[in-house]
Batch of 2 targets.
Target 1
Amino acid sequence: MRAISAFTAAVAALALASLACQTINRLSGSGPLPPTPAAGPTPVPLPGSGGPVQPPQSGDALVLPDGPTIGAARDARIARDDGVVFLETLATETYTAEDFAEVGRTYDYTISLDTEQPGLVFYGWCATTAQLLQDNLSKMTITFQVNGQAIEADYLHTESGTDGDLMCSQTLMLIYDWPEGETQIEVIVAYNESVNDGMDDYGPGEQRWVYTVRR
């Protein structure tokens, strides 16, 4: 499952002490991957990539109508390196690794911001080998949405690397200039067919991470 299982559960703790890289499969061993605010996974070439995955080249930030601003992909990487907070660490809700192992579930995060501050949203996945990671991701569709609008890849920073003995990939989105009121962010992961990360089976089915940000 999404290395995020272990990853997400650890994210809240990670914000307070450097997020221990719990695989993208979040606490399930592999599957969803946890964010590493300070550095991210160690770059490593995937089969057929010819070398470490490079950050995508992108243009200016995306200003959404009546909404927040989505930073360029390169700015998401810089924000991560600079320690910008992961939104789920500010949420009132918390989840366990077992929670993240459930396909067909929605994970809600409620966040209140008293001041204007940028935040990062992430999704990560890990597997026991680079080949499995590549195969898993080819069978998954990962969508980032803000107020119902899908965000194009130009505004998402994706990187691959190692997390302990696992091979991981994580995607980051930088968001700021929050409007007054409520903003809803969703990360939707569809397992188009069953995948196995080397430890567990996931899908077919869907998982949703829903962030409700109030300012």
Target 2
Amino acid sequence: MPEVKGESMAGRKLSFDPSTALHQMMLVFWEKGFNGTSIDDLCRAVGVPKPSIYATFGDKETILVQALELYTSRTPQKNSETWRLDLPLRERLVELIMETDRCLAPAGQAMPTGCFMVNTITEFTGVSERVDEAIRRLTKVSGDGMERFFALAVERGELRKGANPKMLAAQVGIFSGGLSVVKKKGLSRKKARELAEEFVGYLLGAEGK
């Protein structure tokens, strides 16, 4: 996105990077949820007045959809370079499950707990058709990325030829969603990894060659 020129409430010209601003607003929604976030919260996070927020991004619901799109575009299911093909399949899959939140963080910056998408689904499903449609569309993007992950594993001979990438992707999605919910409730990262390793061991043990 190009740099956007705005005007402060005092009438002074200002400028900000919309991509950086959207990332900061995504973190606010991720931490507080949609209902717990006000436009004032978003303005404080970005450091610009309401008119500039509305003019650049639209209303709060529209900003949420854009934040979800940004989140999905950066997850490892979307970006194949995070699959680390030099690692064994089991390690790659555990990292893929565990790294969704960390991959979105600038170096040294802690991220909110859980998965932003899952958090939004649990809060928002059935409230807004526009957000529900965005969730369906973006969840499919992540699912398609995971399906490609398993299809590649079959092509590389890491899984038996009869393995079903679509079904495996769905199973990982269900597990990851549940893991995100319990992480939000305080599950430690160490325990989450132990559960992920156990799940991956079972899944690949059933689908190995």
